[in-house]
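Contributing new complexes? Match this layout with adenosine-5'-triphosphate.
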Amino acid sequence: MKPSPFVELQGVVFGYGDGRRVLDGVDMVVPRGGVTVLLGASGGGKTTILRLMGGQLRPDNGRVFFDGHDIGTLDRAGLYAMRRRMGMLFQFGALFTDMSVFDNVAFPLREHTQLSEPLIRDIVLMKLHAVGLRGARDRMPGELSGGMARRVALARAIALDPELVLYDEPFSGLDPISRGTAARLIRQLNDTLGLTSVVVSHELDFTFAVADHIVVLVDGKVALQGTPDEVRRSDDPLIQQYIQAAPDGPVRFHYPAVSVEEDFGPRAAQGGRA
Ligand SMILES: Nc1ncnc2c1ncn2[C@@H]1O[C@H](COP(=O)(O)OP(=O)(O)OP(=O)(O)O)[C@@H](O)[C@H]1O
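Output block (do not edit by hand):
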C-alpha cells in the first residue's frame, strides 16, 4: 500500500478577492519523504500554493490536508502546532542583518523553546554543520556571499527540526556553482533528516536532477504530476514546451497583439486601421 501523501490539495480554488481565480481546482499530492518540485509559468500561483500549504491562506473552495488533517478545520492552536512542524524559506536568505550567523540560527530556538543556552549552542552548531557553515558562526550576514546567506537561512529553517520544508525559488540570483550546492543540500537534508520538501523553482536542471515528484501548474490547474521520467515522457505539447524551455509552443512568447503588419506595415504609417 502506498503511504498517504504528507500534503494533499483537493479541488483547491483560490483568488485574492479581485474576481480572478489564481487556482481553479488544483489537485496535487506531496509524497511523504520526497522532494516535490512545483513548476509553472510566472504568476501562475506557485507561491500561493505554498501559502495555502502553510495555512497562511485559506482556499475559497476545496481542501488542503497536512499529514492527514484538513487544515481548514484547525483552530488557531492547531494551526500553530502544524506550523511548528514546517520550515519555510520564503524570500530565501532574509536574515536579520544585525545578528551574527549563530544568533540568526538560534533565534527560532530562543523564541519557541525553553531550551538552555548550552543546548541551543549544540543545536545551532549541528545545523550550521549540516549546511557546511559551522566555521562561519561569528560572521555577520553582510560578510557572507549570497549562497552562504541562503545556507544560513536554511540552517535557521531547520533549527526546530521540521518535518516539511517549503522553499520558494531557492536558486534565484545565485551563480551556477552556488545553485548546484544549494540543490545538493536540499536533497541531502531531505534524505538525512527524513524531511519532506516542496520546492518552487524555474530551474529545470535542478528539477530533473533532484526531484522525486514534479507538479506542473498551468492555467490554475495541475496539468501533470509524476516522477521526472513520467514528466519527460509526457506527449502533452504544453509539458514538452515547458520542460524544453521553448519560447514558443502552446504557451506563446508573444502577448496577444494585432499582426506585425498592422503595427509596422504601410497602413500603420498612414495612421493605422484604415
Ligand atoms: N497578496 C496578493 N494580492 C493580490 N494578488 C496577488 C497577491 N499575491 C499574488 N497575487 C497574484 O496572484 C497570482 C499568482 O501569484 P503567485 O505569486 O502565487 O505566482 P507564482 O507562480 O509564485 O509566480 P512567480 O513564479 O512569478 O513567483 C499573480 O497574478 C499575482 O499577481
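Reviewers usually confirm one structural detail per submission. For this one: The radius of gyration is 22 Å.
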